[in-house]
Amino acid sequence: MEPMPQIPMLSYDVVVIGGGPAGMAAAAKAKELGLNVLLLDENDYLGGILPQCIHPGFGIHYFKEELTGPEFAARLAKRMIENGVEYRTSARVLEIRNYSDLEKVVIFTSPSGVYQVWAKAIIYAAGARERHAFEIGIVGDRVAGIYTAGEAQTLMDIYGVLPGKEIVIVGSGDVGLIMARRFALEGAKVKAVVELMPYPGGLARNVMILRDFNIPLYLGHRVVEVRGKGRVQRVKIVKVDENLNEVPGSEFWIEADTLVISAGLIPSVKKLKKIGVEIDPSTGGPVVNDRLETSVPGIFVAGNSLLINDLVDYVAEQGELAAEGAKEFIEKGGIESRKWVKVEKGANVRLVAPHYLSGDRDLYLYLRVSRPMENVEVRIPETGKKVRLPVVKPAEMVRVKLRAEEIRKAQERLTVEVVGA
Amino acid sequence: MKTKVAIIGAGISGASIARVLSKYENLEVHLIEKAPDVGWGVSKANTALIHGGYDDDPDKYPNRARLCIMGNRLWHRWVKELEIPHVWNGALIVATEEEDFDELERLLERGRRNGVPEMRIIDRDEVFHLEPGLTRDAIGALWVPIVGQIGPIPAVIALVENAVANGVKTHLETEVTGIKVENGEVKGVETNNGFIEADIVINAAGLYADEIARMAGIDYFEIHPRKGEYWLFDEGIPGPRRVLFPTPTPISKGIVVTTEISGHLMIGPNAQDLPPEEKDNLATTEEGLEQVWEGAKKLWPQLPPRSRVIRTFAGLRPEPTGGDFIIKAEEEVQGFINVAGIRSPGLTSAPAIAYEVAGIIERDLGVKLVEKERWNPYRREITHFFMLKPEQVNEMIKRNPAYGKIVCRCNNVSEGDVLEAIERMKAIGVKTPSVDSVKFRTKATTGTCQGSFCRPRIIQLLAKEYGVEPWEVTLKGRGSEIGVGDVKALLRGDEA
Ligand SMILES: Cc1cc2nc3c(=O)[nH]c(=O)nc-3n(C[C@H](O)[C@H](O)[C@H](O)COP(=O)(O)OP(=O)(O)OC[C@H]3O[C@@H](n4cnc5c(N)ncnc54)[C@H](O)[C@@H]3O)c2cc1C
Ligand SMILES: Cc1cc2nc3c(=O)[nH]c(=O)nc-3n(C[C@H](O)[C@H](O)[C@H](O)COP(=O)(O)OP(=O)(O)OC[C@H]3O[C@@H](n4cnc5c(N)ncnc54)[C@H](O)[C@@H]3O)c2cc1C
Q1: Which of B317, B336, B353 is a domain's end point?
Q2: Phi/psi at A83 (nearest 5 deg)?
Q3: For B88-128, how does the pLDDT look when each residue is reduced to its tens digit (9 = 90+)?
Q4: Do B270 and B371 fall into the same domain?
Q5: For B456-476, how does the pLDDT look when each residue is reduced to its tens digit (9 = 90+)?
Q6: CA A302, chain centre distance (Å)
Q7: What is the domain-level CATH number for residue B342?
Q8: Residue B125 burial (CB count, 10 A)
């Protein structure tokens, strides 16, 4: 690596990349643990995507109180700032360099200049990006009026712009449903929510939104084409069979001026990939141990960059865990290598994290199922662990607490499965 | 007195002509374009190749054969003068069957006739040395090192900026609706923005050149659109270093596999003929894209999963009656020059077409061209944050902090880049703020996330700089406004 004497140099114990809930919780905790922290976020404000989520539904676990996104963000920001965490907004991390196990360099740019920050550890909490229309195979005209849910939300709730008045939404996850309500409340006509799977993706209470506002839900359907001149004019929808193949002759058009894509998030980990961090193809985020340390020692990850979370409470929890990991790393000069227990995916488990467990601490496993089931048990045969759940859905993350002594019962690996009770 | 010249169409043809004509003291050049910005016609969506000049038969298509190789040579100079993004990476026309070598020999022979330098047929070993990821079925190739790629819209923008710096006047959002001809002589063009007087009218209207010609009473040719579709993949997906063609068939050059200049794997195009009335049908189709996929797989077997696509798009080639470029002064209408049917390789040929037109003005219209004493051949590329070293950024920031702030995170485009783009838009006369105008100048919104993070910020900057409300900012001109009003517009009943 080239040294860069020409650019101003800063030095901290930990740099936190991302000022969303994961990053803010991590920074606050790291500071509380006595570390010297710098948090960087490219937005002009702290909070990540929370300031645009003006609906309630945040914080029930973490703050034991139901808050809106901006309220949740404000509380974390307050805690962090009162702790004396240094932070910079409008500061985009351009590159991470792994100089040695105990020396990392983060290069960021901001209106006051490009800087290099030397740190012992990095907590990466850069969030996720949304899947867009091209990725989900929509063909036709490239016109105005096609937005991802997050973009539509930013336009409405940060910039005060109403994107359209006749809306078709792709995806019935919580984000799609919440946007359906948001549009309806502003007087727009939501003409359809179109869901590829045969079941809705979101929480039952959010699916109720559709009934409340009289919004048609098309399950087992796919938006395939958009046509329009300048602006979206109509959207083509087809039915799909059990294998998600289009049913010939089933297509129909809906007139609309706006198509909102809410087709899932993908962890933003490009910068980690560049320095060789191992990625789990099923989560899209890094492979981590139970300190949320990636395969590059001293780089920790939390929040939507680790795996896509549906509850911000879990995101904040992960941020704190990563901070504890960073503390241990810095104090001991590295996370001790030990006989890690590898977590394996069993029946009906689509993804699970963390991937390696030490058995010296309690922790949460975060997992998602492949298909919905009722009346199930999450089982980990090697440990004898069984947790009963009335219902599991792919869109809802399952969080299971494992105690250290349970983990120690497993030898080299433990298998997580979700099976009928 | 100056001779007034009206060029219809600010595509690569019209822009090249404007630049070349801007050299002359005794011309007053007007560049007229119906779109809100330059380069949004055929020149917007194509394979972006500077072709080698070997595939056009000089007997059947003399203009194409002659101007392609000339254009290629000129681009080697023009990209430097105008700082146009480019790469000279050469092409391989790949043989997978023994019979293909017959065709490659024919191309080699034709290339020699057309004056193409440095081509040769190479064997399997050399092919894989040049391109290790190629299909294992490859048994040899025609190697054409002079082939390259440029940014086609950046090229049009660069040409127009340079032309304007040398005195050319632009008229954007100005649609030509009629040609005034008196006593067999052109007098000017009628437009939605009034009459523009001209002694010479140059018809470089791309897909619509037949309609413009008809306005002048010339109807010996027709143009029909031939659609080509493309897939463009996310960065980091391995693509070839060279431009890869299959061995052509009598009807098509085939589906190209290339790493386009920004480093993205791109495949396409297919060819589908559309009726003349579908000149604005730029919709991608499942069938067309499928065809491209199948075609590309034959050359490049390791295509990524389809979810790694970041964009699909389509372009329309303006296919003229007869198949050759129509570049001439029309005898029955004095002062009217057609630059019509500029299909592929029109991007390559454009600089040569421009010199051809200057020649026609002198030779056929009898206007003796007088060179300016001071003509500026250079144009400086817009600042791209992603091309600067950190210490250079810090220098820029001293003058303007906006250069330190990132707007587009996928491509590292700074707010300074965007503001500079807006300034340059205004300088060439862009009246309607559009995200696409910023996109084509800065590359913002063209990355992995396709703008979902940065588009709202760009809209904000455009709204501020143009003094409009953010919802009035357009994606690509009037009719593509990004919103219907402020969040409460519908509740207030502002909108019907
Ligand atoms: C529409 C919607 C509705 C939701 N509703 C709920 C709900 O009701 N309840 C709930 O609990 N959760 C909800 N969530 C989910 C919750 O908001 C997310 O899980 C959480 O915000 C993720 O936090 P994060 O810190 O991982 O990422 P983010 O909030 O995305 O923060 C990441 C930050 O990192 C910054 N960043 C990225 N790269 C860089 C870089 N290179 N340099 C500097 N900064 C960088 C980003 O700009 C961003 O500010 C919702 C999400 C959405 C989109
Ligand atoms: C799929 C495809 C692939 C191609 N690949 C290549 C390649 O790799 N290499 C290559 O060399 N060539 C290629 N080409 C060809 C090349 O793109 C064209 O030859 C070239 O862009 C034509 O430029 P133009 O300026 O003549 O037309 P245009 O770019 O269409 O410019 C004409 C302009 O006139 C304007 N206009 C029309 N009517 C009016 C009016 N009434 N009033 C005012 N303005 C008007 C239009 O808005 C337009 O901007 C390809 C073309 C396609 C479609």
Answers
A1: B317
A2: -70, -15
A3: 999 999 999 999 999 999 999 999 999 999 999 999 999 99
A4: no
A5: 999 999 999 999 999 999 999
A6: 9
A7: 3.50.50.60
A8: 9
By three-state DSSP, how is residue B337 classified?
A: strand
Q: Is B496 on the interface with A (CB under 8 A)?
A: no
Residues 244-263 of A with CB under 8 A from B: 257
- Which pLDDT band holds residue A203 (cuts at 50, 70, 90)? confident
CB neighbour class for A112 (10 Å; exposed up to 12, middle 13-18, buried from 19): middle
Best to test chain A binding among B412, B419, B449 (most A CBs inside 10 Å)? B449
Do residue B156 and residue B270 come from a single domain?
Answer: no
Q: Report the length, in residues, of chain B.
A: 496
B293 and B425 assigned to the same domain: no
Per DSSP, which regions of A268-318 are E strands? 299-301
B171 is catalytic: no
Sheet holding A349-353, edge to edge: A349-353, A363-369, A398-402
Please tell me whether residues B404 and B482 are part of one structural domain.
yes
Domain that holds residue B464: 385-489
Q: How far apart are CA B41 and CA B205, in angstroms?
A: 9
**In B145-300, which ranges are E strands?**
148-150, 169-171, 176-182, 185-191, 194-197, 200-203, 223-235, 243-246, 256-259, 264-268, 272-273
Question: Could you report the per-residue pLDDT of A304-337, keeping only the tens digit for each?
Answer: 999 999 899 999 999 999 999 999 999 999 998 8
Here the CATH number for the domain that contains residue B120 is 3.30.9.10
Same-domain pairing of B348 and B435: no
**Is B141 contained in some domain?**
yes
Last residue of a domain, one of B381, B409, B433: B381
Question: Which residue among A15, A16, A43, A53 is best mutated to probe the pocket of ligand 1, counting the most ligand atoms within 8 A of its Cβ?
Answer: A53
B247 and B212, same structural domain? no
Distance of CA B191 to the CA centre of its chain: 24
On whether both B65 and B162 belong to a single domain, the answer is yes
Whole-angstrom Cα distance, residue B25 to residue B22? Answer: 8
Q: Please indicate, yes or no, whether residues B430 and B281 belong to a single structural domain of this protein.
A: no
- Cα B176–chain centre separation: 21
User: In this structure, what are the phi and psi dihedrals at residue B432, rounded to the nearest 5 degrees?
Assistant: -100, 120
Residues 197-236, chain A, touching B (beta carbon < 8 A): 224-225, 227, 229-231
- Assigned domain for B175 exists: yes
Q: How far is A143 from chain B (nearest CA, A)?
A: 7
Digit-coded pLDDT (tens) for B262-282: 999 999 999 999 999 999 999
pLDDT digits (tens, 9 = 90+) for B353-397: 999 999 999 999 999 999 999 999 999 999 999 999 999 999 999
Domain count for chain B, please give it.
3
Question: Is B30 inside any structural domain?
Answer: yes
Ligand 1 site, CB within 6 A: A 17-23, 40-43, 48-50, 53, 57-58, 92-93, 125-127, 149-150, 153, 174-175, 178, 268, 303-304, 309, 311-313, 315
Say whether B450 and A132 touch across the interface (CB within 8 A).
Answer: yes
Residue B169: pLDDT above 90? yes
Residue B233 lies in a domain: yes
